[in-house]
Amino acid sequence: MAGNAAGIRELVAAAAAAPYLERDEEVALAERWRNKRDREALHRLTAAHMRYVIAIAVRFRGFGLPLADTVQEGYVGLMEAAARFDTAHGVRFATYAGWWIRAAIQDYVLRNWSIVRGGTSSSQKALFFNMRRLRARLLSGTGGDLGDSELHRRIGDALGVSASDVAWMDARLSAPDQSLNAPLGQSEGAAEVEDFLVDQETPLPEELVQTRIDGKRRHDWLTEAMSVLSDRERRIVRERRLAESGATLESLGETLGISKERVRQIENRALNKLRDALLETQPDRAAFV
Description:
Blueprint: H1 2-17, H2 23-36, H3 39-47, H4 50-58, H5 67-84, H6 93-112, H7 122-141, H8 148-159, H9 163-174, H10 205-225, H11 231-242, H12 249-256, H13 260-281
Helix pairs in contact: 2-3, 4-5, 4-6, 5-6, 7-8, 7-9, 8-9, 10-13, 11-13, 12-13
């Protein structure tokens, strides 16, 4: 933490020492960077506005994130503004850059404020960054005598979102993150929270068994049907359809000494023969072919 604080002090000192830019000088530097990719011009332009980045970053200290990292994200926004700034619009660079700096910092806060990622739509961002302020203002104006439902409704009206969205964000902001490894009892070896989470990606045991049985059955079907093919047809089907990395028509044609069009014809004929062989014995295999 001490090193972090020292780094911030050095950054603030460097930003304070950077000279302010007159409008004409600012325009000249922006055009040199935009038209000639002059890195010295970019450095002078951004250095002169680092104090602005720091001032915006300080406003987000309440979220408990390292100030140095917040400033760094703001600098990313500043660089993006420099890349997009068009002097023809007649606005000062600081006015234009402010939006990009705040946007970059807000995205950083949303990504890192909680281990549970919050929403990133414009309405959810507005909720995240304004809800506490609006809550405090509404409660102070009513002496604190305001139910949650009415409070959520008024906040939603102010920000143009639904009361249910406000209630969801209120719960997100008021509930602390809980570790998935938190024990559910006091005894040694007690179950943890993650032990009761449903795995949405790994198939259930019965699904794994069914897949294995079905796979074996289909393999037997295919092995039986392959017996109706000639040696060349079997080779083409194996290398084109059954190999992990299917061979191209052209490469197979060179190996077999025939044209790729001929390989395609033989492949289609072989697949039709396989289909007929599979359906001849058991019509219910249609789904397989």
